[in-house]
Amino acid sequence: MNDFGVAEARDTRAVDVVVVGAGQAGLSSAYHLRRSGLVPDRDFVTLDHSPRPGGAWQFRWPSLTYEKIHGMHALPGMELTGADGGRPSSEVIGEYFTAYEERFGLRVRRPVDVAAVREGEGGRLRVETSEGVWSTRALINATGTWDRPFWPSCPGQETFRGRQLHTSRYPGPAAFAGLRVVVVGGGASGTQHLMEIADVAAETTWVTRRPPVFREGPFGEEQGRAAVALVDERVRAGLPPQSVVSVTGLPVNEAISRAREQGVLDRLPMFDRITPSGVVWDDGRSVDADVILWATGFRPAIDHLAPLGLREPGGGIRVENTRAVRDERVHLVGYGPSASTIGANRAGRAAVHDIRALLEHEPALV
After folding, report:
1. Quick check: 25 and 350 in contact, CB under 8 A?
2. Are 325 and 236 in contact (CB under 8 A)?
3. What is the pLDDT of residues 164-222, one digit of tens each?
4. Is 153 exposed, middle or buried (0-12, 13-18, 19+ CB in 10 A)?
5. H helix intervals, 14-168
6. 97 and 54 in contact (C-beta within 8 Å)?
7. How far apart are CA 133 and CA 365, in angstroms?
8. How many Å separate Cα 142 from the centre of its chain?
9. Other C-beta atoms lying within 10 Å of the C-beta of residue 196
10. C-alpha distances out from residue 207 to 141, 157, 190, 274, Å
11. Does residue 50 contact residue 147 with C-beta atoms inside 8 Å?
């Protein structure tokens, strides 16, 4: 299936499909590629830059136990059963992904860093990696967002004498014992960090750019479809995807209700500048702080796709289903409306369906 008659560098290897990333979306894609008849390491290859299986979950803080996560939709073909809700989600999901890769023989290559994807020869894509160059007829990008933490810029940020860190490096609440902590961000991570830290810190202050929206009551299929439709509308318009919470709101559970009653979730608007000793607002208000924790989310990790010129003027990649509108050979899974565990599964299946049609329509070079 991989006859390749175009001259390339000797270390270039040719496959039909390269999958970049082995989180939920990447593993789902690899599963469906194999199920469609393609053979791992012969017809397609899955590259992952993480040191071990588990996707972004392997880097989550120890206090984020499996029972605290919003839900982990099973990967296709293998349920996650018997998980201990009290164990760290990083361990539970890491072990699950490991077993999944082994069961289906997906042969994920790691750690492999993808530096760039650019136009190759003969209508193929050239994937430049730390393990050499791959030449491929199609690419499934499943790199998620974890590797691109977003740090807002704020006047005086460089003068702060305390510690600044992002959710991506959150060590758990014990590290903040006895400290004055400002938590910035109104998403799920920000509220989880805040509620944990409040139990041990000397003082906590919650700051968000917009007033948080708490969602009371059930969140069913109809509400889920409406939320996905809002994200999909932006992606189809070529705009960067919004955060999940921006379209779903924060679900009110027992812990949220208790924290609101205790005043932990009393929110202040975004401060105007940072000083060596804390944060201040233009109205004269100020808060002293030892730590500023930026729970300000992530952006899609797609810089390696830049040589292909896929971005629209709005800053995002316009996607129809999973296919990049500017290049039918490129599919983005776990991006925009498919950036959820169940959405990633569906996107993997949809991407493989379209890629199989592409491969059949455009025969391999001989």
Report:
1. no
2. no
3. 999 999 999 999 999 999 999 998 889 999 999 999 999 999 999 988 888 776 555 55
4. exposed
5. 24-35, 89-103
6. yes
7. 18
8. 9
9. 21
10. 34, 15, 10, 13
11. no
Average pLDDT, 10 consecutive residues per value, the chain (366 residues):
41 95 96 97 97 94 85 86 91 96 97 98 96 98 94 96 96 96 93 95 96 71 58 70 67 86 94 98 97 95 97 90 95 79 80 95 59
| Contact assessment for residue 322 and residue 332, using Cβ atoms and an 8 Å cutoff | yes
> What are the residue ranges of helices labelled H in 10-169?
24-35, 89-103
Helix (H, G, I), strand (E, B), or coil: what is residue 133? strand
User: Measured between alpha carbons, how far is 218 from 42 in angstroms, rounded to an integer?
Assistant: 46
Return the sign of the alpha-carbon dihedral for residues 11, 15, 18, 24. Answer: negative
Q: Return the closest-CA partner of residue 238 out of 162, 163, 326.
A: 326
Q: Quote the tokens at residue 105.
A: 């023989």
